[in-house]
Amino acid sequence: MNNNDHQLDIFDLLPALIDLKGKRIVVKYGGNAMVDESLQKKVVDDIVFLDLIGVKVVVVHGGGPAISEHMRRVGLKPEFIHGQRRTDNDALEIVEMVLCGKVNNQIVKLINSHGAKAIGLSGKDGNLIRARKLIREVINDGNFDPVDMGCVGEVERIDSSIIEQFFKIGILPVIAPIGVGADFEDYNINADVLASHVASSIEADTIIYLTDVDGLMLDQDEPSSLIRFIDAPTAKSMINREITGGMIPKVASCIKALENGVRSGMIVNGTKDHTMLSSLVFPGEVGTMIRAGL
Amino acid sequence: MNNNDHQLDIFDLLPALIDLKGKRIVVKYGGNAMVDESLQKKVVDDIVFLDLIGVKVVVVHGGGPAISEHMRRVGLKPEFIHGQRRTDNDALEIVEMVLCGKVNNQIVKLINSHGAKAIGLSGKDGNLIRARKLIREVINDGNFDPVDMGCVGEVERIDSSIIEQFFKIGILPVIAPIGVGADFEDYNINADVLASHVASSIEADTIIYLTDVDGLMLDQDEPSSLIRFIDAPTAKSMINREITGGMIPKVASCIKALENGVRSGMIVNGTKDHTMLSSLVFPGEVGTMIRAGL
Amino acid sequence: MNNNDHQLDIFDLLPALIDLKGKRIVVKYGGNAMVDESLQKKVVDDIVFLDLIGVKVVVVHGGGPAISEHMRRVGLKPEFIHGQRRTDNDALEIVEMVLCGKVNNQIVKLINSHGAKAIGLSGKDGNLIRARKLIREVINDGNFDPVDMGCVGEVERIDSSIIEQFFKIGILPVIAPIGVGADFEDYNINADVLASHVASSIEADTIIYLTDVDGLMLDQDEPSSLIRFIDAPTAKSMINREITGGMIPKVASCIKALENGVRSGMIVNGTKDHTMLSSLVFPGEVGTMIRAGL
Amino acid sequence: MNNNDHQLDIFDLLPALIDLKGKRIVVKYGGNAMVDESLQKKVVDDIVFLDLIGVKVVVVHGGGPAISEHMRRVGLKPEFIHGQRRTDNDALEIVEMVLCGKVNNQIVKLINSHGAKAIGLSGKDGNLIRARKLIREVINDGNFDPVDMGCVGEVERIDSSIIEQFFKIGILPVIAPIGVGADFEDYNINADVLASHVASSIEADTIIYLTDVDGLMLDQDEPSSLIRFIDAPTAKSMINREITGGMIPKVASCIKALENGVRSGMIVNGTKDHTMLSSLVFPGEVGTMIRAGL
Amino acid sequence: MNNNDHQLDIFDLLPALIDLKGKRIVVKYGGNAMVDESLQKKVVDDIVFLDLIGVKVVVVHGGGPAISEHMRRVGLKPEFIHGQRRTDNDALEIVEMVLCGKVNNQIVKLINSHGAKAIGLSGKDGNLIRARKLIREVINDGNFDPVDMGCVGEVERIDSSIIEQFFKIGILPVIAPIGVGADFEDYNINADVLASHVASSIEADTIIYLTDVDGLMLDQDEPSSLIRFIDAPTAKSMINREITGGMIPKVASCIKALENGVRSGMIVNGTKDHTMLSSLVFPGEVGTMIRAGL
Amino acid sequence: MNNNDHQLDIFDLLPALIDLKGKRIVVKYGGNAMVDESLQKKVVDDIVFLDLIGVKVVVVHGGGPAISEHMRRVGLKPEFIHGQRRTDNDALEIVEMVLCGKVNNQIVKLINSHGAKAIGLSGKDGNLIRARKLIREVINDGNFDPVDMGCVGEVERIDSSIIEQFFKIGILPVIAPIGVGADFEDYNINADVLASHVASSIEADTIIYLTDVDGLMLDQDEPSSLIRFIDAPTAKSMINREITGGMIPKVASCIKALENGVRSGMIVNGTKDHTMLSSLVFPGEVGTMIRAGL
Questions:
Q1: Do A7 and C9 count as a contact with CB atoms less than 8 A apart?
Q2: Choosing among E122, E164, E185, E187, which should be mutated to test the F contact, i.e. which has the most F CBs within 10 A?
Q3: Which residues in A have their CB inside 8 Å of a CB on B?
């Protein structure tokens, strides 16, 4: 089924919109959906409309291609290990500048220009995100070897009090994935993972991952293979099998959020029109909904 | 008199501290005071202590040398016209990245690591700063010629409601000098001027300009020539005469703030120990206090 | 232009909806729009959607044909003088029972079943409407003769504090046109006039009269004669000339509201689809907007 | 002992009044106490005084003779099965009109005219009372046969949030016994039973049933047989034995309230002077107090 | 007319009590009414009942005979000049100890034991009363000679914010007439005068002076000469003529309060039963009511 | 180590001060520290500074020598049994006058003159302290004989709601050790013991006993014998052995507070400069800290 078949007529949606009122939703926004300007506008329209009808939205974003692009501009070479950016101190400086000084700013401005009231945050603001160095291991000749990813961190604790205060005064938080250590070191955090932590810290109703595919599909080339509903244990068992590549951190983080009390997760295509809103008001028709299970 | 002669003993200061409680103070922080790390720590100590005793502090910062440095890194050539950076679109991207993604972040983190709760803002956050293109003129062959400064803006309106909300929930705002136009263009704004606008928008009691000299001096080489108190009209008459160079925008902005209801202005040396706090508790002994006049 | 041409697509409307947020709107609901059940549902959809997006709505309703019908059932004969129901004590008992025990209840239930939280009020609730006996005069042989309309009242004072409290706790008030005198007599009040008083008491942004024609028309049979915008003085001068019959109290009450500070008035066709919402988001395209004038 | 022997002197009562402050009391008002106008005034005086000294009062009322009277007026024949009115759709229309448009209005107005601030509610207002069809059975030839009572309902759920909000803003709720089903059908509910549900939903301290006898009496003709205190289990065992007729639903509902956490119940004579207040300040001297038991 | 003729039946009084709700009343309590224990109890009953029905009461008290008595006990000789106690430093110590450590405590305890929540204050608490040395003059050989009254003060300023905060949290303030100077000296203040200042600082509705006569009387021995209503200018013209002795400061202070916005003043007999409450509910029948005038 | 070695430089202390913010501290103030005026000023400086930085302070005080002195002045003979004043009715009158009308007043005034906002309370204010007669026993010929101490009481219950309300509105409570019985008798309470009850009733972080020695010392004449940290069980075992005389009630009360949830206790020398503040910011260096134990 094609998203575009849905007319977003107010009064068809009214009962679903009434149900959404007061809900808490974390949107992980990144990748290609963030690059195209006209797509950006539609995602932001969805966000602003949700805000208008009383949904409490938090946006967590990544940096995408802009980081690598700027790194190259200053003569640094992007390097990835198993899909995660190795971030030395020089890289980190660029990562933060792009994330906080460019991407975050831009999303905030776009949301505000459409009539909501957003404020950009990184983990440094109000000690929002406490992180620690992430130790990854790779299998090497049958051994697990730790790999130094540099300034890449994992979340230790989210202080959601600021998000709660923002909700109370009608401000929509837009969060860049930078955390601070007990040692006051900065860490770059995977945005998919961060979104999951943020969602459980605010006891979100739904976490939405915007991707560039229509959802979990058994066969990427076969639209009819889209999984409309799936429970978390089943989804978990599909990781590294049917679920591969960039979809893994999204699905794994989504499952983690469900295990920590978030009620449902959505994998939706952020490169198509208004799929985020559609997925909320037409669950099962747009995107894949992951539920906690039996 | 040397600042360092002042022992900042709690109980000597107590009556002055009691008087400060509940006051609103805007601090313009920039230049060299921002570069040296141990100086930074002292300025931040002052800010955190003021926050602790119930002073409502707003920090407005510039970018200083970091902007030019990063521009050069990406192959752009910094260009200044009468002390103001000409900012084309390419430059603006760097300006924002450095201001919001590096300098602002750093100040926020430093303040938070000392125990207060700061959040960084630019004019994009919550539509804080509405700006418009600044038209400057230079005298050219006896004619006033407009000069295109690029994306350099002047303040049209400060929406101080967010600052007020932050004050209520105990958050200290740290503001980067980026504004947004009605046309949703971004503008780089002079931080000295912005501080003045912010101060009048919140009806501040005091605006403090941190510089690298001890205050207004008739003779820079003669410490005894420091002016301890001056009224705004007198200060105004000294602009372009005794007051020159980088001191001009500070003093002019400070006078503007006084004309718009701010009660007093301070020009203090941010490169010496705890001069900000000292200037507040020992007015007349540290820095120059500018008062509205008769 | 036909109302039905408007697709009420959320994202076309978004900027207009953002503007509506927080506005205060009084809706006079009555006549035929109230009789047909499917029309009722659409009017209520509009009301519930406005409530959802943060508009503060008050509904004021009349009783329409239901009153006369029930009077006949108990053997009373409805009697009208210049379009106003003569209401003796026996009639008043029926009027109140129908207004409060049937019509008001029904509107409240319909609104609540669609997801908002309405509470029905008459002027007796919390002393909302203080009224006094209305003295009308008719021209008789060239003399003005007072006519005893019975228990028909005019508004002396609205105590809007309850409406304000309802707004604060998210309750939508639905008001039946019964007032109470200083003498504790009950009075039936013209609902068009009451809506005007309610609107000025809460400093409403807009008052909307739902009728069964498309707006003010110079020629009822000629759709193109619809007046899209008109100022209050011009409208006033048309009363008893182009404006006749049941439209007179609506337009006169609307003008009165504008004179007492309400910002705009709308005359819209409540028997067509979603004209109320359309008139708010497409002013000039649906219904007639009356503005205070120069 | 005669109630009238009590002088309601303020200062004799002061300690008892101080104890009442802040208590929550549900008053079931109906029957003959509601018919006589001078008795009404006294009951309302008691209610308004309790409100004045800070007691949180809720009034739940029935319709009494007014319903049957109006039904006859429109040619409907009242019909009762085991003391409960069979209510078909035609009857229900009249029941609602009389309850909400006449009886409720009148009580609200009377309370307000004495200086308190009451608002009338039915189960439709703010979805206060969710009901479902009541299935009753009668013994017929030794079998239990279900009897169709028509639109008679039983309480499924009370949403007391509106009552709580009214308490906070100083409004006294007066509740008519109409509920709404999940199917949006209206239901007539027994007011004695409704009072019990309301009382437990707000964790009332006391529920008071106003009747036309002095309390529970072993012999109606012998004043000295009045039971002053009784515990719930004992009272329960007396149902259908010493307790008969119209007293049964009152006592049974009262016991139900006690089982659901209400602290005490009173059966008092609403046709005598100020018995409600007297029963509260002279427990054991006026009316019968039912207590939860050991 | 004798006060005791009034039955303080709750329901006779109800309309008057409703009117009192929310009013602000300052009671000057002192002299003989304070000495007799059973009279104390009645005055306190009145105060507690007023508090119960939502009247905002402030009690201001004097010290009466207890001060002189204790002074004599420690060997000091009470000395009066024109009715005012000369208060040297030794005397002041005793004055404060008796006022704050005995009289105030006792009133507070009595009020609390009857069920209200009172807190005792002197001018030292929360800087409530700022005073300055009172300079009095006596006519001596035709000259005005200043007399040194010692530590006797006049009110410079009342900081009513604490009283307002107490009102908000349901606490009844009981104030002893001690003020503090800018020099941090303590001053004894005339309680009649203080009551007047307190009343105007909180914009009281009524100030009540409890005395030991029935009100203003043209002939103390002739009950029928009691003045029931009088306006302030007339009362003023009677000072030093019909009004003499200890009544002068009461009437003069009362007039001062009326000139500063208090709506009415009462002079009532605190040695008779419940005259304070009676004077409020039966104005014109008990005590003398002084009104601001035409 | 000598207290005076500590420079109370703001910025040395900053981290410790940040930690103190929001803490709750009960200070028992009495004895010699209260007599010397210049010492008083320093203790009050500490209190006012703690208040300034957001610490919630409660002061509980005793009466010290002033009571005995005043008793002698009125011809009463102070009498002590095992260190506790026997207080007959005559003595109690003096005790209250001195405690509430002299000592409490003075502390309140001193605190307020330094810029905080204190209000004095005794147990009578707002029913703060409910007490009952204390029965003590002495060993007499091998028997335990009860001794009548007169109006000496022990704490039955602290109603801390007033303290909490004072905290909320920024008022610092200063409490005199007078309680009231269920029988409305007044009781004199040991201030050391009262401080402990107050501390546990507000779940204080720290209770501080100001004494005239440097802390718990194994040898009073040997400064180096000062115990810096001790746990409650160890301290308990030292009572009547190493801990003797006036230190016993302090240590015993402190232990009791720890057993009831207070986190730490301090025994510090109130006769030296700023030892209270020093003990909080330099724990282990000034005074003895008693901790709950393992």
A1: yes
A2: E122
A3: 70, 73-75, 93, 96-102, 104-105, 108-109, 112-113, 117-122, 124-127, 162, 165, 169, 171, 178, 180, 184, 186
Write the Ramachandran bin of D4: left for phi over 0, alpha for psi from -120 to 50, otherwise beta: alpha
* Mean pLDDT computed over F270-280: 91
Entry pTM = 0.94
* Gap between the terminal Cα atoms of chain C: 28
| CATH number belonging to domain C3-70+99-123+169-177+189-283 | 3.40.1160.10
What does the DSSP assignment read for F228-282?
-EEEHHHHHHHBTTTB-TTHHHHHHHHHHHHHTT--EEEEEETTSTTHHHHHHHS
Nearest to F195 by CA among F27, F25, F65, F83: F27
List, for residues B8-57, the tens digit of each pLDDT value: 788 888 999 999 999 999 999 987 777 788 889 999 999 999 999 999 99
What does the pLDDT look like over C172-192, one tens digit per residue? 999 999 999 998 999 999 999
Beta strands E264-269 and E186-189: pairing type? unpaired
Question: Which 8-state DSSP code applies to residue B226?
Answer: B
F58-F63-F64-F70 Cα dihedral, nearest 10 degrees: 160
pLDDT band at B126 (very low <50, low <70, confident <90, very high): very high
DSSP state of C212: S
The terminus-to-terminus CA distance of chain B in angstroms comes to 27
CB contact under 8 A, A98 and B102: no
- Cβ separation C126–D112 shorter than 8 A: yes
Facing residue for C165 by CB, picked from D121, D126, D169: D169
Q: Is the pLDDT reported for residue E2 higher than 50? A: no
Q: What pLDDT score does B294 carry?
A: 57
Angle, in degrees to the nearest 10, between helices C37-52 and A10-20: 50
Chain B CB contacts of A98 below 8 Å: 97, 101
C125: which chain D residues are within 8 Å (Cβ-Cβ)?
108, 112, 118-120
Structural tokens at position B219: 């003779």
Task: Output the six-digit token pair for F124.
Answer: 């009578």
Sequential DSSP letters for F91-136: HHHHHHHHIIIIIIHHHHHHHHHTT--EEEE-TTGGG-EEEEEPPE
Domain ranges of chain A: 3-70+99-123+169-177+189-283
CB contact set of C224 (below 8 Å; sequence gap of 6+): none
Helix (H) or strand (E) holding D166: helix D161-168
- Nearest-neighbour CA in chain E from F165: distance (Å): 8
- List the single best residue of B3, B52, B117, B276 to mutate versus F (max F Cβ within 10 A): B52
User: Hey, is D159 helix, strand or coil?
Assistant: coil
Contacts of F162 in chain E (CB under 8 A): 119, 171
